[in-house]
Design goal:
Layout lengths: L5 E7 L13 H15 L5 E7 L7 H12 L6 E4 L2 E5 L4 H10 L7
Parallel strand pairs: 1-2
Antiparallel strand pairs: 1-3, 3-4
Organism: Bacillus infantis NRRL B-14911
Protein name: Disulfide oxidoreductase
Length: 109
């Protein structure tokens, strides 16, 4: 199967979302996710980036989605793979791994 390098984007903020008390911060989730995906899909290319919803980059798509997180009161961190939301608030590795496999990634043995 032809695998493309997917981009995982974690949208969040310094301040914890009000419904997410006792959960890791968005930045901690990003770091944890990067380590977990790197282990699960070792030696397979992917990129992961963190977007602060209150200070998004110049990238129009990322800026637009950051605004959507705020306007729709989404629970952050919000995790996107491609243009699909695969986690919100307390993202589940199982869901993220399944989406990676759908994109042609194979788990390391």
């Amino acid at each position: 199967m032809d695998r493309r390098s997917v981009e995982i984007v974690v949208y969040g903020a310094e301040q914890l979302c009000p419904s997410c008390v006792n959960l890791p911060s968005s930045k901690e989730t990003y770091e944890w996710l990067e380590a977990a995906v790197s282990r699960k899909f070792a030696d397979q290319p992917f990129s992961i980036s963190y977007v602060d919803i209150h200070n998004p980059p110049d990238d129009e798509a990322k800026r637009d989605f950051a605004m959507r997180v705020i306007e729709e009161d989404m629970f952050y961190p919000v995790v996107l793979i491609g243009d699909e939301v695969v986690g919100e608030g307390n993202p589940k590795l199982k869901t993220i791994f399944a989406k990676m496999e759908d994109c042609g990634y194979t788990p390391a043995s």
